[in-house]
TrEMBL record:
Record InterPro entries: DC-UbP/UBTD2_N, DC-UbP/UBTD2_N_sf, UBTD1/2
Coiled coil regions, renumbered to chain: none
Organism: Rhodamnia argentea
Chain positions covered by the region annotation Disordered: 1-27
Protein name: Ubiquitin domain-containing protein 1-like isoform X1
Top-rank taxon, per record: Eukaryota
Amino acid sequence: MGCAGSRAKGDDSSKRIRKPKPWKHPEPITRTQLMKLREEFWDTAPHYGGRPDLLSNLILLSEIWDALHAAAEADLTLAQAIVDSAGVIVQRADLTICYDERGAKYELPKYVLSEPTNLIDDN
């Protein structure tokens, strides 16, 4: 088993991404609440995951988080193109666990990738 950064560009070992399996939030949640959770996650995500110890790592960290954010909001075909072009190594096909080329781990909660089955109207 090689290290995460040893995967060559164009290597067929990259995972094809897929929609997350249906999931249920602990309690019914409105679309407004879901959007607030997503916004809070993306505002704070760059402060977690990755290795921000060097300036070059900070730049890579920001680029990977930006790519993951764009992929989370895109359709599957575009999301696949985004993660492939950014060099994101997909550990779980639903994008909940990914790595960058240096082996830093990025974890995405399901609520940024899809809607829960118990989403309720705001009204």
